[in-house]
Amino acid sequence: MKHSNPLLDPLAESAVIAACALADAAGPDRWSSGAVEDAATALEVLAGALAELSPEAAELLEVVPAAVAALRERVERAPAAVMPAGPAVCAEDSAVLSTGLRRALVGHSLAGHRVHQLGPALLTVTLDAAHAQALAVLLAARRELPRQAPAAEDELRWGAGLAETAAASLAVALAPYGPGTYARVLASGQVTAGLSPTAAAQVTSALNTRPSPAAGSSRPRRRGLGNGWKGIDAGR
Question: Are 44 and 70 in the same domain?
Fold first, then answer.
């Protein structure tokens, strides 16, 4: 990789200056649908260009298209409320949310996950398909709400493959936590889920809460099987 490029460096610097100017002028009540669309497209284009650096870079950045798609869906549903109401989440709060969610996932042996904070309003969790399905089951067991009807898109994904089915199940399990949640299949075959800070906090709390045992679910004690029981008499 070159340390400098006389053709590319000025363009990259101009992109940074433009992005900083946009960020300075932006605010929760200042975004328009067109501005969000243009900014989202810029994110997609830059992520696609940076993904060509290496396979590792491509894997790190493949969450961006899913996040951008979810943002576009949200803007289409509620153009007048692009950002959630309430105070912005500071960097320290974001770090606490990410760390808490990581610990909750580890506590349920959902290893190999990646948690990323993509700005103040979006946190993503990426898992393999099996662990994404396990997370969906855990959340469904802990959410005391009527079963959510899957969206048409999610319903079509059931049975289309392990990753697609896991993403559809996780999307349904996350739906009660807010309209901004989503689950998508990445090019690597892993599943990524997007959550607002509020949803991330609620999911973490749900994972840290032990569900109360159902009535009659206690396991009956077996008689005659003490600590010294070895099965068939070894002396025979």
Answer: yes
Residue 181 belongs to some domain of the structure? yes
Range scoring the smallest mean pLDDT among 13-22, 70-79, 182-191: 70-79
Highest mean pLDDT among 99-103, 147-151, 207-211: 99-103
Two structure tokens written together for 95: 């770090």
Same-domain pairing of 60 and 168: no
Q: Are 158 and 165 in contact (CB under 8 A)?
A: yes
Number of domains in the chain: 2
Distance, in Å, from the CA atom of 39 to the CA atom of 49, rounded to the nearest integer, reads: 15
- Same domain for 99 and 176: yes
CA distance 122 to 66: 12
Reference 201, options 86, 87, 99; nearest CA is 99
Helix (H) or strand (E) holding 115: strand 114-117
Task: Write out the residue range of the structural domain in which residue 42 sits.
Answer: 12-82
**Assigned domain for 236 exists:** no
What would the 3-class secondary structure string for 168-196 be? HHHHHHHHHHCCCCEEEECCCCCEEEEEC
Residue 3 lies in a domain: no
User: What does the radius of gyration of the chain's CA atoms come to, in whole angstroms?
Assistant: 23
